[in-house]
Amino acid sequence: MFENIRLAFRGIWTHKLRSFLTMLGIIIGIAAIIAIVSTIEGTNQQIKQNLIGSGSNTVDIQLYQNDWPMDFSYNEPPYGVNQISDSVLGEIRALDEVKSASKYASRQIYDGVYYLNKAMSGGYVKGVEPDFFSTANLTVKNGRLFTDKENTEFKKVCVIDTSLAEDLLQNEEAVGKVLEIGGDSYTIIGVVETRSTFEPTINTIADYDTYMQKESGNVYIPLADWPISYRYDEPENVLIRAVSTDDMTAAGKKTADIINGSISPTDDTIKYQSKDLLEQAQQLQQLSSSTNSMLIWIAAISLLVGGIGVMNIMLVSVTERTAEIGLKKAIGARKGKIMGQFLTEAAVLTSMGGVLGVVSGIGLAQIISIMSGTPIAISWPAAIIAVVFSMVIGIVFGILPSHQAANLNPIDALRSN
Q1: Among residues of the chain, what percentage have pLDDT more than 90?
Q2: Phi/psi at 269 (nearest 5 deg)?
Q3: How many CB atoms lie within 10 A of CB 238?
Q4: Is the model's pLDDT at 143 over the cut of 70?
């Protein structure tokens, strides 16, 4: 085997230009496929990150009527929908897919929160329990979080995020300032920010609108204080943190099923649903991948052309080395040895083309990314498969020339010299 490989490299080096031109079809095909796959992977990762962020794995389970979340700024709480009990929350936390869970109340605000004479617009007020912050992947930037005691004793304290601190307080020192929330005064005791530094890629107006809605700002008050500023017995939502990104869909659906099993609304259109961003990302990824799959098949045609080129040059090589083959057979070389030598040469030739194709494909993907701004992600499994596939092409298209060489009559082969 090693001797065959050595002879294969010697033959390739002897006919450098011919060998390179033979490999060119393989190089182009592999390079095109690697570039396309890298672009698809990069686009899929961007879609996933734009929707679900980077590693927070949080899923919102909210009360919906038909396909719309219920807004209690205008709607009365529906009959038969109770607040989420500790036992229901315990069932949710016991799910294998759930790392942590916390209930909360929420209201989008356009003019109900004020600092001095400036109103918060478009952000959210959320009534939360102390464990909400860890579930939401929030960490303290300034000040502190409120305690269980402050929650149970109805202390009018609040925590804001960095977006609200920048927008409403104009980056003033926030801790100690007083906000008017729903007509009541709350003292800011802390400012929080997400642990992730992820920033989504914004390419369209829709991306911008989604991002700005998410980043309008939040103010958090103790859940026990919610009835003071808003309404008693208002149905709550649940935020869960899945064990992994891949568990988000299952965790959200199982959580919604548990909560729906604990309520009995008189209106069948009212139920809890998970805001499944992972599922949305997967749908967009499938659309992106299916759009590009045809490009991969088109690029694969060049591999077929490259394989035919390999077969052609190997037939030429057999013709050129007829006397050599006759001499080897005359001194006892078996058909299998002759066939193995030419198959090895074909496999080495196409494997070299595969390696060069992978390198060229990575370079091509980088160029595409720079010129078009399209993100890329190099798929090393795809690169390994490409090299192995190129070797298989060499073996498949080398069978006919190898078989022809192995079946040469040694007397006729020697006479041809």
Answers
A1: 23
A2: -80, -5
A3: 26
A4: yes
Nearest to 370 by CA among 27, 39, 28: 39
The SS3 of residue 237 is strand
The token pair that represents 154 in the structure block = 């109805």
CA-based angle 8:27:398, to the nearest 5? 40
Mean pLDDT of 187-202: 70
Whether pTM > 0.90 for this model: the answer is no
Please give the structure tokens belonging to residue 307: 């394989």
Amino acid at 230: Y
Quote the CA–CA distance of 349 and 186 in Å, as a whole number. 75
d(CA 325, CA 329): 6
- Here the tokens at position 404 are 């022809």
With tokens 């229901």, the residue in question is 88
The average pLDDT across 62-69 equals 87
Residue 354's nearest CA partner among 379, 329, 388, 309 is 388
- How many angstroms separate the CA atoms of 242 and 249, rounded? 9
Vertex 191 angle, CA 186 and 197, to 5°: 150
- Residues 253-278: what's their mean pLDDT? 86
Q: Any bridge partners for residue 257, and if so which?
A: none
Name the residue ranges covered by the structural domains of the chain. 2-50+285-415, 67-268
360 vs 364: CA distance, rounded Å: 6
What single-letter DSSP state applies at residue 232?
T
Single-letter amino acid, residue 272: Y
Q: Which helix (H) or strand (E) holds 158?
A: strand 157-161
Q: Residues 56, 137: contact at Cβ < 8 Å?
A: yes
Closest CA to 38 of 368, 286, 303: 368
Which residues, 6+ apart, have CB-to-CB distance to 355 below 8 Å? 387
Distance in angstroms (rounded) separating the CA atoms of residues 408 and 381? 41
Structure tokens at 247: 């568990």
Residue with tokens 């160029």: 367
Other Cβ atoms less than 10 A from the Cβ of 206: the count is 9
pLDDT value at 111 more than 80: no
CB 280 within 8 A of CB 248: no
Residue for token pair 């209106």: 267
Q: Is it the case that residue 279 has pLDDT exceeding 60?
A: no
How far apart CA 262 and CA 81 sit, in angstroms, is 8
Q: At what angle do helices 380-406 and 16-52 cross, to 10 degrees?
A: 150
